[in-house]
From TrEMBL:
It comes from the Eukaryota. Residues 11-22 have a biased composition (Low complexity). This is WW domain-containing protein. Coiled coil: none annotated. Keywords: Membrane, Transmembrane, Transmembrane helix. Residues 1-62, 571-594 are annotated as: Disordered.
């Protein structure tokens, strides 16, 4: 993200008064997204070649068609000059239509012999269909028109009729011929000023794409990318919305066996790739785990046996699983992303700000560890839900362990302060007591911070990719990136380490209060060995590519190089000025002359 507010709100041909529309966001699939927005669709969509068998003829929702299907679409004078706006989707899941509450004296009675419960108020030429999820939409068979608009209302039917007529008029005036197999989708939305806006898109089922008869500015769709796009590259994003169209309007879009085989092939390829990459490349761009892909494959095989059943519409969302990720990964382009932790824009190491550079040593370099993991998840401001979930689960386990360790350390400090020799009892505080107090404070701080973080991710787990992306976007600074978030994640560990070190300091101060030489010697040798083992462990276990270690090693090399240079420069001068005892003066003069 680049810090822009609602970067993916789709502009509609210059209309500034439009509210931002949204499509349904299937974030449970874990599809990549960079900008959580009203338009982010995290489940891919599919589109088969249309057949002519309805998938939603459920008995209690049987479509009712009028006797005559000859309908004339006329553009009345009051609609002349009204603008037409291209759109990419139907705002079905964000309409928030309110059903008025019934009155107290409301009655509903069935006439005698009522056996037909189908709709009888559908306008002539239209049929009503019910999506398996419950949404009502209408279809005009002779013109292949779909709409969610409630055309049962006369005013809305007049708007739809005029919209179709306006599209026909524009196409005729501009010499545009639309194939009779082309589908037309109409979206009528109410503006803030109560005006109805006309939105549309056409569907080419043979090429599996959407198109328009007006120029359509789709720059907002490329806002997830830092680079430029091209027509072959943008086709992946068009696939996404094409599959979504089929899922929204399953009527006449049954799943045939060829499409089932195509879907099975996609899932088998992803499943095989994920199994291999789990062994060879944990950073694979495959979206789902092996278990999830296996379940999808099993469902696809079951639906293949009966593809024309209404339940098959649920499988449509699996077809385009890779459409949007391919768009984000520059699939098929020169320099495409092949691993999900690979940047396609910036190959140079990121510069760290002064904030994390100064604070990291005092926090035992823990922020750098979390920062590197966050940057691998939020690469090029895109993400996948699977590594994010693994990262958060690992963090929560660590924080729970830190709470336990800090509690034990807190009890140890309380027991240490209860030792009579530690507290002299004269209202004065020894250095050992002060160190123990500091240990108690840092241990308590570790417990509090860890509990707050654990609760935050339990109350707001951010289980969907949209929620996670929105969270990471809000925590990404323009210059510091996610350094602040990494520092916060490292606080429980850092405070616990400070509590442990100050407790060791308090205990050592108490040990060295002894005056007997043997006791002092034993304590000194023991502490020296323990300190040596700790330093050895840190040096051995620390990753060589850690920025702090690299800086320390670089400084040490510079110091050693400076020392060598100084010795080399001083060496010849010392030999010349100090000839040594017994050397004749003439020899010195002769040598210097040579």
């Amino acid at each position: 993200m680049r810090g822009r507010d609602n970067p993916r709100a789709p502009p509609r041909s210059g209309r500034s008064s439009r509210g931002s529309s949204r499509v349904r966001s299937h974030t449970e699939t874990g599809i990549y997204t960079r900008r959580p927005s009203h338009e982010s669709i995290n489940r891919a969509r599919v589109s088969p070649t249309p057949s002519r068998v309805s998938v939603d003829r459920i008995p209690e929702h049987e479509p009712k068609v009028s006797e005559s299907t000859e309908v004339e679409f006329v553009l009345s004078k009051k609609f002349e000059g009204k603008k037409l706006y291209p759109t990419m989707f139907i705002n079905r899941y964000e309409r928030n239509i309110e059903i008025p509450r019934r009155k107290e004296d409301y009655e509903f009675k069935l006439p005698p012999l009522t056996v037909d419960f189908f709709r009888k108020d559908v306008p002539r030429g239209w049929t009503a269909h019910v999506h398996p999820e419950g949404a009502l939409y209408f279809y005009h068979e002779s013109r292949n028109i779909y709409t969610d608009a409630n055309i049962i209302e006369p005013g809305m039917l007049e708007e739809v009729t005029a919209l179709v007529a306006a599209l026909d008029k524009y196409a005729d005036e501009n010499g545009i011929r639309i194939s009779h197999n082309t589908e037309l989708v109409l979206e009528l939305e109410e503006e803030e000023n109560k005006e109805i806006s006309w939105n549309y898109y056409y569907v080419d089922n043979f090429r599996r794409t959407l198109f328009w008869i007006h120029e359509h500015d789709v720059t907002w769709l490329t806002s997830e990318l830092h680079g430029e796009t091209s027509l072959p590259h943008f086709k992946h994003e068009m696939d996404r919305y094409y599959w979504m169209h089929i899922e929204y309007f399953p009527h006449h879009h049954d799943l045939n066996r060829d499409m089932a085989d195509e879907l099975i092939g996609i899932l088998v390829h992803s499943l095989a790739g994920e199994e291999i990459h789990q062994l060879t490349s944990p950073s694979s761009t495959v979206l789902f785990s092996v278990d999830t892909l296996s379940k999808m494959l099993s469902i696809a095989k079951e639906i293949k046996a009966s593809p024309s059943k209404p339940e098959s519409v649920s499988i449509h969302g699996l077809f385009g699983l890779e459409s949007h990720p391919r768009f984000l990964h520059y699939h098929g382009q020169h320099g495409a992303r092949l691993n999900r932790d690979q940047s396609v824009h910036d190959q140079n190491p990121k510069r760290r700000s002064s904030l994390v550079t100064i604070l990291a040593p005092s926090l035992f370099n823990a922020p750098f560890v979390h920062l590197r993991m966050l940057e691998k998840i939020w690469i090029d401001e895109t993400m996948c839900i699977q590594p994010w979930e693994q990262f958060i689960e690992k963090l929560k386990e660590e924080w729970q362990e830190f709470v336990l360790f800090a509690t034990v350390l807190l009890n140890a400090n309380v027991a240490f302060l209860a030792i009579p020799s530690v507290d002299p009892g004269n209202n004065s505080r020894t250095p050992a007591q002060v160190a123990s107090y500091i240990s108690i404070a840092t241990s308590t701080g570790s417990i509090i911070v860890a509990l707050l973080l654990i609760r935050q991710y339990r109350v707001k787990p951010r289980e969907t990719v949209e929620e996670a992306a929105k969270f990471l976007l809000s925590k990404t600074h323009t210059t510091r990136g996610m350094e602040t978030l990494a520092i916060v994640y490292s606080l429980p560990y850092a405070l616990l380490m400070w509590g442990t070190l100050t407790f060791l300091l308090a205990f050592s101060l108490e040990c060295f209060k002894a005056t007997h030489p043997a006791a002092l010697s034993i304590s000194a040798v023991t502490w020296f060995l323990v300190g040596f083992l700790i330093i050895w462990t840190i040096y051995t276990a620390w990753e060589s590519d850690d920025p702090f270690v690299e800086r320390v090693q670089r400084k040490m090399q510079e110091v050693l190089q400076s020392a060598r240079t100084l010795v080399v420069r001083k060496g010849p001068a010392e030999k010349t000025t100090d000839p040594g005892p017994g050397t004749p003066a003439a020899s010195i003069e002769s040598g210097s002359a040579v």
